[in-house]
Amino acid sequence: MLDHNLDFETARQMHTVLVLHFLEGQKQSEIAQKLNLSHSKVNRLIAQGRKLGMIKIHIETPFQRLMERERELVETTSLSTAVVTPTVSGNADTNLQQVGKAAANLILENVRDGDVIAITGGKAVSATVDHLFADRSFNVTVVPLTGGVQGKFYTDVNHLASRMAERLGGKSMLIHAPLFAESKAQRDMLKEMTTVKEVFDLARGADLALTGIGSIEPSGSSYYDLNPVPEADRKMMVGLGVSAEFLAHLILEKGGLANFELNSRLVALAPSEITGCRNVIGVAAGPQKVQPVQAVLNGNYLNSLIVDESTVNAVLEGMGKSQHVA
After folding, report:
1. How far apart, in whole angstroms, are the C-alpha atoms of residue 279 and residue 297?
2. What is the mean pLDDT of the chain?
3. I need a surface site. Which of 10, 83, 159, 316 has the fewest CB within 10 A?
4. SS3 for 186?
5. Would you state the torsion angle of the CA atoms of residues 182, 185, 262, 273, taken in this order, to the nearest 10 degrees?
């Protein structure tokens, strides 16, 4: 009998291990290497799966509806991977932590020695870093995708890059430049500085890129922690069709970059500059992220998306309506 109180991430990992072992016939040592797990942990997951009755004619999971949403996302977008976590009604922080934990596990399954990992700031990225608990150390280099903003811990991308490197056992290279320059000319000058250019060159070819997906409409949006924007300009952005913030760039509803002055002063890589990354992973949670996620998906900026169930339900409903109208 399945335990419906089973932790989502444990159940998901258990499901993956059981499928690989019993349906695909992989050895436990092969699974351990594939998922970056210890052999003993793979053995424990299989034993626990047996005890819970998950090994039958097919692999059974208490989160089948979430797996169906994941398949729907992959089938209707350019995503190659999607992870949908349960939504806890009325508890935004729990939802954020669950999404962060799922993103951390996805990174641990995909990271390899020698990889470069590029990240943005943001609450969801910070939650992901908090849940990185590797079974072993990885020889990785973690770099920022944007310039830095000091202040709140989750906006300081250098701080997050250092913490991620520490948790994975690797090293970090930091950007010693502000996120917003005073002018486009100053932005160009800063990006050509040797220390900044070196980091951005690594980020362009990163093996894994972890990015938040920001909202620009709510007053509590983290975008306004990056750069205080007058109320009149906020209304103007919404009026121009701006729906999201991605790599600190303002993104239109259809996925294109907004022709807005703030974008021209960013000391950051543009979304088009990370298309060469092996896996661009977006992470988001909460109803305020529905339109931003739709915009980023419309722009085909991601390979993988980690999001909570209520948010993805609204995203799929909204995308279905737009496709119907089109």
Report:
1. 14
2. 89
3. 10
4. helix
5. -130
268 and 121 in a common domain? yes
Give the CA diameter of the chain.
64
Residues 207 and 69 in one domain: yes
57 lies in some domain:
no
Place of tokens 């990354």: 277
Residue 33: CATH number of its domain: 1.10.10
CATH of the domain at 111: 3.40.50.1360
Q: Which domain holds residue 24?
A: 8-51
Q: Is residue 2 part of a domain?
A: no
Q: Give pLDDT tens digits for 57-68.
A: 545 556 788 989
What are 261-266's contacts with CB under 8 Å, separation 24+? 262/180, 262/227, 262/229, 264/184, 264/187, 265/180, 265/181, 265/182, 265/183, 265/184, 265/186, 265/187, 266/146, 266/147, 266/179, 266/180, 266/181, 266/187
pLDDT tens string 197-221: 999 999 999 999 999 999 887 555 6
pLDDT tens digits, 39-97: 999 999 999 888 888 876 545 556 788 989 999 999 999 999 999 999 987 888 999 99
